[in-house]
Write a structure and sequence with these properties.
Oligomer: single chain
Pfam families: Peptidase_M10
Helix content: 25-40%
Number of helices: 3
InterPro entries: MetalloPept_cat_dom_sf (IPR024079), Pept_M10_metallopeptidase (IPR001818)
Bound molecules: zinc ion
Structural class: alpha+beta
Protein name: Matrixin family metalloprotease
Shape: flat
Strand order of the largest sheet: 1-2
Keywords: Hydrolase, Metal-binding, Metalloprotease, Protease, Zinc
GO cellular component, one term: extracellular matrix
Strand content: 15-25%
Number of strands: 2
Order of helices and strands: EEHHH
């Protein structure tokens, strides 16, 4: 879970990621990395995409996608250019 703790204008300046230990301990290390990548996507400003080929799908452990897609990286670039 990602939490915004402080913002400055449109920017999130303080944030934290909280992992559910019970949930995470039952995942493979590859799926744990997928969850961490997904949560960092939120930190960078991405929301959920209901697309099985995106790490930002609501549950990143239910498919074989474990890294951000080209479209997701472009979305982060776009967010940071605003
Ligand atoms: Zn999410």
């Amino acid at each position: 879970m990602y939490q915004r703790l402080a913002t400055s204008g449109q920017y999130v300046t303080v944030w934290r990621i909280i992992y559910n230990d019970y949930f995470m301990q039952n995942l493979s290390i590859t799926d744990q990395h997928a969850v961490a990548t997904h949560e960092f996507g939120h930190v960078l400003g991405l929301g959920h995409f209901d697309d099985p080929y995106q790490i930002m799908r609501p549950d990143p452990t239910t498919n074989w996608i474990k890294t951000p897609s080209y479209d997701e990286l472009n979305a982060v670039d776009w967010i940071n250019s605003q």
